[in-house]
Automatic annotation (TrEMBL):
Residues 1-147 form the Globin domain. This is Globin 1. Belongs to the globin family. Transmembrane segments: none annotated. Keywords: Heme, Iron, Metal-binding, Oxygen transport, Transport. It comes from Drosophila virilis (Fruit fly). One of its GO terms (molecular function) is metal ion binding. Pfam families: Globin (PF00042).
């Protein structure tokens, strides 16, 4: 990623991270609406979709996803950023292994993250491409640790 791309990522990220839980909730609400079966993995799977935004565990996962991205975007451009990204995203993969989250499910979440970011930050086509590159990069770190079904490799 070149310095213009890095600057764009950091600048556009300021918008969703200003309201982290709400941004995460927007992502997760869209995710569960579009891919309802993914909700089965969560302890709040019996809560009706329309009540999720006020559910504490739902809001906790929403905020945590944003925090992982925030930590990643903060280290970008610093010395040792690649090692740090490896560490952050391997931890995400390893923590999710007992929950057996498939690659397909991660990719479904990626699709929704990109859509929510595009709308929230009014990203143009080339900015979407750069964001996609970043998410593909961190996802490759996850996918190095898991197989198709989300089990450990
Ligand atoms: C960008 C990708 C993701 C990130 C950064 C992320 C981040 C996190 C974090 C930080 C936690 C809390 C720590 C832990 O218990 O492991 C967590 C929990 C969890 N994640 Fe994810 N996650 C991601 C994708 C997914 C996907 C695709 C699913 C599947 C549908 C999923 C399902 C869960 C579940 C079921 C929990 C436990 C929630 C609870 O007990 O309340 N995650 N995630």
């Amino acid at each position: 990623m070149n310095s213009d791309e890095l600057e764009m990522i950091k600048k556009t990220w300021e918008i969703p991270v200003a309201t982290p839980t709400d941004s995460g909730a927007a992502i997760l609400t869209a995710f569960f609406n579009r891919f309802p079966s993914s909700l089965q993995k969560f302890p709040f799977h019996n809560v009706p979709l329309e009540e999720l935004p006020s559910n504490a565990r739902f809001r906790a996962h929403a905020g945590r996803i944003i925090r992982v991205f925030d930590e990643s975007i903060r280290v970008l451009g610093q010395d040792g950023d690649q090692e740090k990204l490896d560490e952050i995203w391997t931890k995400v993969a390893v923590n999710h292994i007992p929950r057996r989250i498939s690659r397909e499910s991660y990719n479904q979440l990626k699709e929704v993250i990109l859509e929510v970011l595009t709308a929230a930050c009014s990203l143009n086509e080339s900015q979407v491409e750069t964001w996609t590159k970043l998410i593909d990069h961190v996802y490759n770190i996850i996918f190095k640790a898991i197989n198709e079904d989300g089990d450990a490799i």
